[in-house]
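Worked example 4.2. Below are the chains of a multi-component assembly; read each line carefully before continuing.
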Amino acid sequence: MAIDIITYVFIAGGCFFNLMAVIGLHRFPDFYTRLHAGTKCTTFGSILLIIAVLIQSISIWVVEGGSSPQSILSLHAFIALIAILVTNPTGAHAIARAGHRSGVKPVKAIVDDLEKEDNA
Amino acid sequence: MWVPAAIFLGVCVIVALVRVFLGPTTPDRIVGLDTINTIVVMIMVILGIAFKEVILIDVAIVYALLSFVTTLFIAKYIEKGKF
Amino acid sequence: MRFIVTSFIAFLAYLLLTTASGKVALWSSTEIIIGIVFALITGALFRNRFIGKNFRMLNPKRWFLLIVYLCGPFLWALAKANIEVVCLVITGKINPGILKISTGLENDLSITMLANSITLTPGTLSVEVSEENGDLYVHWINIKEEFLEKMPRDCKSVCGNFPDWIRRIAG
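Applying the procedure described above to all three chains together yields the following structure tokens:
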């Protein structure tokens, strides 16, 4: 019973961070700050949701024993989490570099070292 | 308890799709698309857990890797203007 | 040697994805045969790309340090970063800019790990890497005022003690 409550808390946290990522896409003014919201919050939300999956699987595993199909499900979910963790920041880095090279400048920036470097 | 979470994430995808349509520049649209990719992977994993189907989570892993390749290609496209 | 190591890692990944498919110690015999064939093809194709100049990442101590780093300081910094971004989403006060920091790391793998780490940690996002000396250009969402005065920016306040960890893992 307590395990169900902990799972609910983790699912609610994951959904909250994903919602904040999507709202941040609309509230921030330019593309770099939107990238902050869209990368960090979805990654952390994914981690929380997969932790909820693992907690639920471990509780079923303790009750029913090792060869239940739930353990295969949780193993594959963990591999999906690793794929997200490796690819998400790398993709964000590629988008940021491509955006800067295609000429989108940060809005309201107080300092831009890279621009000075290009002009010099 | 898993299906309401998947429906909630589906609503998040629709809200992010508004940014893809509105976005003033091309990189804005790609940021929205990248966010949608991650959320869709999570929806697939959650539905796989809810209906106890391993094949949905396998498809989610392949989708995550292929969407990464897609992001890299679009980034290369807007960097040079051509392939 | 490179061929053997690449094929073996590909075979391990295949076995991990097809766990509990049969009776021969969790795997079925057809899965094992197909896995060996595809692992040999993968090793022949990618043996020069997967492993760089030397075999230092095969040391299990580096893998242990990597797991400790991911579960300890990295996860804590990730949680702090998300709470900060959520506060910025709700309040809407931002103060952005692009800064140049010099990290002092040499090889490609450690610079990649540092760039990925500071993308996921508080308020920063790596934009561009200088190829020749390993400098990073970082977009910071909420710059502190006192940080702007010193011209060679110190990387201590951007990435904390991540370079020390990464030098121990991949250096």
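Take a moment to check your reading of the output against the notes. Residues 2-104 of chain A form one domain. Chain A touches chain C through 43 residues (CB under 8 Å).
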